[in-house]
Amino acid sequence: MKKPLYQQVISDLENKIKSEMKPNDRLPSERQLLKEYGVSRNTIRLALNDLEERGIIYRLHGKGTFVSTIYLDQTNLGSMYSFSEQMSETGHKPTTQNRTLELVTPEEDVANQLNLRAGEKAYKLVRLRLADGVPLMYGETYLPEKIFPNLKMSDLKENLYTVMKQKYNEQSILAFEDVQAVNLDEKDSKVLGVKPGDASLKIFRRAINDKNVPIEFTISLARGDRFIYRSRQYNHLV
Amino acid sequence: MKKPLYQQVISDLENKIKSEMKPNDRLPSERQLLKEYGVSRNTIRLALNDLEERGIIYRLHGKGTFVSTIYLDQTNLGSMYSFSEQMSETGHKPTTQNRTLELVTPEEDVANQLNLRAGEKAYKLVRLRLADGVPLMYGETYLPEKIFPNLKMSDLKENLYTVMKQKYNEQSILAFEDVQAVNLDEKDSKVLGVKPGDASLKIFRRAINDKNVPIEFTISLARGDRFIYRSRQYNHLV
DNA sequence: ATCTTTAACTGGTTAGTACCACATTCTACA
DNA sequence: TGTAGAATGTGGTACTAACCAGTTAAAGAT
User: Fold this and answer.
1) Residue A29's domain is classified under what CATH number?
2) Are the C-beta atoms of residues A199 and A224 closer than 8 Å to each other?
3) ∠ at Cα A142 (A186, A184), nearest 5°?
4) Stretch B27-35: mean pLDDT
């Protein structure tokens, strides 16, 4: 499985930027890059578009293409829609401890979030996420039984979203996330390995599939000193 | 001032989608669109890229291009891009105290976020936001002088984004927001009217205009017990 | 010397063509 | 009557070739 050309250019430029360049340094012009890599300008621009979109570079008409500043700070871990992906991207080794998986009748608030009727059950999955071996995030995930029947711990060796897709052909198109700051209590602070009272991000995530049916509800606690929630907002007002 | 072709295609497609199409409807194929609009495939793909990036459409290799589900639901508030709007929608009376506005040479990290060169100045605006008279959020906003020359306190009777648009014809298309949980120190806790050590959301916002030029950088502190950061995540990963 | 013009950069837009990879349908062979 | 395979449609990648539109610095005129 060989990568497309422009993705190779992306990787290469990204590495060079990371290792050899400083913020606001100028990159070679598009016409120079085209010669260096032996590809067309189209391909170069595809690669640069990607880097620009991800905030790694910025372009100024008539002046050139430059290294952004935001890129370097490693602490930027991004929003949590896929913990493992984001970790890998930022060069950290992500691990997940699946602690418990049980079939429960959820509390009313959780049931509401999942549009469950009285008595309908859901799987409750408790996970601890670590980066480079350090606890970073603790999460309780609820998955409706009617959508994910017969879910097993052994399924969860894979990424959760992979399991959803492959075993159940379910996929989250849209997720709503609410983020709140809380002071950790004794118990939770112990789990995350910090002091009681330390600030923590509490993230509520509600994911729905393409038919607007809720398929996941997760409550997470993330260490305030190590986790940054990142999102991007588009304003298409026109 | 005539728009580029592909932007016309974007507007036109966007209108059609809004007025005539339903979620998951299929758009004409790229090769059909190319004939309809009398432009090259390159141009069509540029337009579709934009719509895809903004979550309005999604593409499936071999199958076609489709209308996303998210676009319809009007609740387009996304996040905190406009404090006042959001508050009104939730039924609270928002007020803003503009405390200070001064022209400063920002620290390096702020300068970097705004892509300012050494010595370039920015307006620093300090604001306190209240809901129903209770302090809720404290924010420092930096605005590049070269983009907003001659900014005055009296301009700020209006909503900041209204001023940007009307006085300077600037508009933020995309904003990156990083959200972190912190424990408040003595000073900040006093401003927000809570106890030192209380958890708070620290929000970094970097907004750029349609030319990818940073036009705003804001650092906010929001009361953890009263403020929830809300966002939505689209996954058309397939 | 100073100002104006021009030339030579930069990224931005557009056209046209070709082929690849995935998905579906139609067709021909067993 | 199936089933393998071809044909056709979709988006994805890639190249070539121009020209447009800002920016900067060199060349020229005053």
Assistant:
1) 1.10.10.10
2) yes
3) 15
4) 96
What residues pair up with A208 in beta bridges, in sequence order? A174, A214
pLDDT digits (tens, 9 = 90+) for B168-179: 878 776 788 888
Dihedrals φ, ψ of A206, to 5°?
Answer: -125, 115
In a domain, A233, yes or no: no
Chain A: give the shortest CA distance to residue B225, in Å: 7
Whole-prediction pTM: 0.70
- The answer to whether residues B14 and B51 touch, using CB atoms and an 8 Å cutoff, is yes
- The answer to which of A81-90, A114-123, A195-204 has the lowest mean pLDDT is A81-90
B65 contacts B48 by C-beta, under 8 angstroms: yes
Contact present, A237 and B210 (Cβ < 8 Å) = no
Task: Answer yes or no: do B171 and B211 share one domain.
Answer: yes
Tell me which residues from 3 to 22 on chain B have a beta carbon below 7 angstroms from nucleic acid strand C: 4-7
Helix (H, G, I), strand (E, B) or coil at A223: strand
Helix or strand run (H / E) with residue B20: helix B5-20
* Listed range (A195-199, B30-34, B71-75) with the worst mean pLDDT: B71-75
Two structure tokens written together for A103: 């079939």
Taking the C-alpha atoms of residue B234 and residue A176, their distance in angstroms, rounded to an integer, is 9
pLDDT higher at A145 or B86: A145
CATH code of A128's domain? 3.40.1410.10
Indicate the Cα dihedral angle A31, A35, A41, A45, nearest 10°: -80
- A vs B: CB pairs below 8 A: 159
Q: Is the CB of B105 under 7 A from strand C?
A: no
Query: Are A113 and A61 in the same domain?
Result: no
Note whether B36 and B106 are same-domain residues.
Answer: no
